[in-house]
Amino acid sequence: MALPPTHAGHRARLRERFLKGGFDALADYEVLELLLTLCIPRSDMKPLAKALLEQFGTLRGVLDAPAADLRRIPGMGEVAPVALRIIRDAATLYLRQTAEGLTVLDNCDKLADFWRLRLGSLRHEVFEVAYLNHHYHLLEDGVERLEAGTPAETVVYPRKVMESALRKQAAHIVVAHNHPTGDVTPSEHDKRLTRALQQAGQPLGIKVIDHLIIASQKTFSFRKAKLIAPE
């Protein structure tokens, strides 16, 4: 069944505004509406977009919401939640591959952007490692999740981290974990772990370039805070 001419024209105008001005030219509900038109082809998406924002607060809240929660919103169906997850994960992949082409030593913010999108919405702590070559470039597929824990902590073994770095033939590493509370202040445990990782890597010639603590909107960098000496 074809869209009514008014709805079809509205979709075309949304696309045209996006092409001219990007997402900055659209309100949040219009961004979400535009995304929904890609996976729900024959309905007016404005009411659904507004209902989703009312339920989940922000565009990020919608993209981070579990599929089961999205399906409870009338009109979402079975396909749209999967499509939104694909869109979000494609953005994460884009950020990772962008970081692969850069010197991470000068562009740790790119890794932070990647990790905020990847880890910022998780409700439990995880610990991940980015593996770098001698030129400080992120290795291809060079991000690995080594540990997953509870909402309050993750147990990390420095020996396991270094074994993984050796297996990847990495010369340097950047490590990251998330704080589901949103507070990125490093704990004493975080500081001890960072020192232990540095000590474990020293005899192997593997340097810890940074330790990032991730929340949905904020990042703490040990390197920027001078808790790790700059190269």
Give a topology summary.
Layout (H helix, E strand, L loop, with lengths): L4 H17 L6 H10 L8 H11 L2 H6 L2 H5 L7 H22 L7 H12 L6 E7 L5 E11 L9 H11 L3 E7 L9 H14 L5 E8 L4 E3 L10
Parallel strand pairs: 3-4
Antiparallel strand pairs: 1-2, 1-3, 4-5
Helix pairs in contact: 2-3, 6-7, 8-9
Describe it.
The protein is an alpha+beta fold and 231 residues long. The chain has two domains: 5-90, DNA polymerase, domain 1, CATH 1.10.150; 103-221, 3-Layer(aba) Sandwich (Cytidine Deaminase, domain 2). It is built from nine helices and five strands. The chain has helices at 5-21, 28-37, 46-56, 59-64, 67-71, 79-100, 108-119, 158-168, 188-201; strands spanning 126-132, 138-148, 172-178, 207-214, 219-221. The protein has a five-stranded mixed beta sheet with strand order 2-1-3-4-5, with helices on both faces. Helix 9 (188-201) links the parallel strand 3 and strand 4 (207-214). The longest helix is centred in the middle third of the chain and has 22 residues, at 79-100.
Short description:
The chain has helices spanning 5-21, 28-37, 46-56, 59-64, 67-71, 79-100, 108-119, 158-168, 188-201; strands spanning 126-132, 138-148, 172-178, 207-214, 219-221.
